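Researcher: Please generate the 3D structure of the following complex. Treat every line as part of one assembly.
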Amino acid sequence: MEPAIPPIESDAERDKLEIAIDDCVRRFYAKGAEDPLLAPIFATIDGLDQHMGIVTNFWSRTLLGTERYQGQPFAAHINLPIEPQHFTRWLELFSESANEALPKMQAEQAIAKAAHMTQCFQSGLFPFVDADGKPSRAPAQ
Ligand code: HEM
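Model: Done. Output below.
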């Protein structure tokens, strides 16, 4: 269950949070670029600044209820060469970034949302189990 968050009424508070979200996203991609598991995948992103802008809009929508993000996040991941271990690392680095950049309440909300989405993405991408019982894109042979 994602924690409920009271609406932020003051423009100054919202502006501060937008800056913190931008900081969180930049920290996350800086960590990703240094990470042996995730860096090769992030390196394929065409136009990193534009991509970070899209992801910032996603978190602005999640944390502030703006309508700047209108995409389909799952679809963007279907053809990526990702496996369950990438999600574990992704969530670790995202959680670090959120805890460093966001106020505590919004960090908790963002991490809960990210954790839920990593579960949903994995259920969609790996609907089968392989011969060793691990999540898999294809049925066991
Ligand atoms: C294994 C973990 C993940 C990896 C390696 C990964 C990597 C990527 C990459 C490479 C893209 C760009 C795809 C493209 O433009 O073609 C992307 C897009 C995106 N990702 Fe992830 N991602 C992961 C998990 C997640 C999770 C858990 C979330 C949500 C909390 C998320 C949110 C997004 C969003 C919002 C976009 C932009 C989609 C759009 O263009 O509308 N990602 N991701």
